[in-house]
Amino acid sequence: MPPLEPSKREARARTAGAAPAIILVEPQLGENIGTAARAMLNFGLTEMRLVRPRGKWPNARAINASSGAHAVLEAARVFDTTSEAVADLQCLAATTARLRDMIKDVATPRDWAAATRAETAKGLRAGILFGPERMGLLNDDMALADTLVTVPTNPSFSSINLAQTVLLLGYEWHLAGGAEAPKVILRKGWGSEPATQADVMGFYEHLEQELDYCGFLRVKEKRPRMVRNIRNIFNRIRLTDQEVRTLRGIVVCLAEMKRRRLKE
After folding, report:
1. How far is CA 191 from CA 86, 241, 242, 243, 248, in A?
2. Is the peptide bond before 58 cis (omega within 30 degrees of 0)?
3. Domains of the chain by range and CATH?
């Protein structure tokens, strides 16, 4: 089995704050551990704990399925019991697809993420338990947790796999930390910039001239409103200089085709 490639620097760069530990109890397939590690690193979670994983550890199938999230697998710790795996944690949640006969707080992934962010901000250590793929956590393991987390799914089909569950929880954790989708900003030198008002107005005048010529704006009383409507369509797009040039090229092509046909 090939050795794990160290990428701790990458893991630290992707980790924000005191992230909760992800504890997988009796995971049955190496592939599921690997894909869970991949989901973790996507959202800045790097601490994986394994309780009695099936087969040998490290696991080649886990490594291959992790898609490069080797730092998570390399640092993963293995425990004999769930109690040992969570002994140092002060806030512990457990995932479940069905509510048990227990009196505990029940949270959605979003509620859990917000509450856990608040707890870790106080310096507390947190973690969340995930059960075996086939049957989920045993009651004895769930009894260790202070909160149960359940994903609101389609009631007639609520089956989600281990990595999907880790991904959902990781996403909500990341979102609760203020993560936002990256904004695309056009910069000079990238081949396109936001069009100037002069460029846009030049396009409008060109388009309206051709629309007058072909008779589209022939009704004098309606012309001002129609012109405003056309301009508003393009204003909502926030045209770039390249888009303005393309549109003007289209107008020229259509106008020339119209004139050729009239001459024939």
Report:
1. 53, 9, 8, 11, 18
2. yes
3. 8-176 (3.40.1280.10), 197-263 (1.10.8)
Task: Please give the Cα distance from 234 to 101 (Å, whole number).
Answer: 59
Give all strands (DSSP E) within the chain, no chain letters.
21-25, 48-51, 77-79, 91-95, 105-107, 126-130, 147-149
Report the amino acid identity of residue 14.
R
Percent of the chain that is helix, strand, coil (3-state, to 5): 45, 10, 40
Q: Which residue's structure tokens are 């020229």?
A: 252
Pairing of strands 21-25, 105-107: unpaired
pLDDT in tens, 93-135: 999 887 767 778 899 999 999 999 999 999 999 999 999 988 8
The residues near 258 (Cβ < 8 Å, ≥ 6 apart) are 214
Assess contact for 226 and 217: CB atoms under 8 A: yes
Query: How many angstroms separate the CA atoms of 26 and 48, rounded?
Result: 13
Q: What is the pTM of this model?
A: 0.69
Do residues 104 and 94 make contact, with C-beta atoms less than 8 angstroms apart? no
Question: CA-CA distance, 113 to 90, in Å (whole number)?
Answer: 15
Inter-residue contact 132 to 28 (CB < 8 Å)? yes
3-state secondary structure at position 28 = coil
